[in-house]
Description:
Strand order of the largest sheet: 1-2
Shape: globular
Helix content: 55-70%
Keywords: DNA-binding
Protein name: HAT C-terminal dimerisation domain-containing protein
Strand content: under 5%
Mean pLDDT: 81
Pfam family, one: Dimer_Tnp_hAT
Largest sheet: 2 strands, antiparallel
GO molecular function: DNA binding; protein dimerization activity
Number of helices: 23
Distance between the termini: 32 Å
Amino acid sequence: NKRSKAWAHFTIENDDPDHANCNYCSAILGCKSTSAEKEGFRFFMSKACPRFNVPSRTTMYRDIIALYETEKAMLRKYFIDSRQTSWNLRKKIISFVLVDGHKGDDIRKSLEKLLIEWGIERVCTITVDNASSNDTCLAYMKRSLTNRGCTHARSQYLHMRCVAHIVNLVVQDGLKIMCHPVNRIRHAIKFVRAFPTRLDVFKKCVQLSKVASKGLINIDVATRWNSTFVMLDNVEKFERAFEQYALHDPNYKTELGKTGPEPKPDALDQRGPPTQSDWVYVREFKQFLQHFYDLTNKVSGTKYVTANTFLEEIADVNFLLGEWSDHVICGDDEIFKCMGLKMKAKYEKYWGDPEKMNKYIFIAAILDPRTKESHFFKDMIEDTYGCIIGNRILTSSHNEFVSLFGEYKELYGTSSTSELASQARASENAYENSLMRSRYNKKRMRSCGEGTTSSNMRTELDKYLAEDTEELTAEFDLLEWWKLNAARFPVLSKMDRDILAIPISTVASESAFSTSGRILDDFRRSLTPATLQALICTQDWLRSKPINA
């Protein structure tokens, strides 16, 4: 009955009036295709929806491929349409292919094939992990894109190194230095959680120690340093509970004394239960890791801009490592000093020389109206690289900013003027009976045509840099600010749309901490590459907001 109040909770599909979607069920679930053939599922559907006929795997395959092609066509049309003016940041998986080999040329061929298939002609940057094959691939891509009409500056700054990957390398060096205290605590947790009887005794020890925690101890995953951080953050509250447990279980110290490798000559023994110094080290190390944990979460986001904060993030890392290696935080403790120096050396390898860094990270900071070329921007660079090198960076980044603006002026200056002119003509048609509006619009069009001179180019730049910076607040919406000010800064807004969209991490936050490879389960490994790509891409498209939303 269409008059039923129940229809207020459903939305009828426009192209299929026989189908309706629940307004509250936003979850999209996925399962193996063989699940639909199991007796339990068929019995469930026979009771839940008797008229539903379970399709065969062949039918499901055809439906999945058809859905993939439909969604792909819609997304491809969006990319090809150069007039899109949306200021919403989008993340889409558009390919998941089997590369023929691991050489740079093999990766380059796959990338070029992808760009041609999707009709993507303009590429700002390609963010990759640190690998020699990626370096080779990007060298090929620079030449290829330049030959296809890419400007010199665009191809010169094509290579963007993944921040999360570099942070991972820095943290892993710190974990190697702190491995003995961490391993002793890890072994103690494994011992307690090995049997239910031991865990019951430990729970009683927690009560006796009056530990204020609702949860219990958890073991980490060795290849995911974030889980090590979470483990240490949780377990430090249970120090007294472990001391109580040692009194209740005589096997605790005996068994842990045998756990771990035999110590090498002149090396520390990592066997045995955690000592008091271990807990001190772990608490300090946990506070240290907190900064990298927050940083990795921040740079791995896909729903907000990250390029503008790149420079600030590495400046914070440099400051933190400097304090640890200079005894500011850790006093005279040689372990922390050694850890700080080792991590600092890894940092210097990738971010110590600004000439080897992508210049877009400096330009992205300038395009943030909270930063621009302010005293904060200058202090941040000088504190990180020193006054002499810092002044050189400030000069070069400003020159690159002006040069890139000139290139965008040549590329988009006329089109920006045309957009304003078309808006004026549309306004004139809408108000054709108003002589004043008509005269104003014609005057506006003439002024737009005269705005291509070098002096006007400088005027837009100078106007932006001369205005006061916005307040440094977390609530500030960077893309919304540029959306509202695009009419005042037409060329700069074009730069902003390209540069602020640069992802500085190659992985989503949930996998950014992993040092192991991203693994496909047995189910997906049995699929053909084409089917796997259709599943991975379509799942991403369906779970994210529609491109036109």
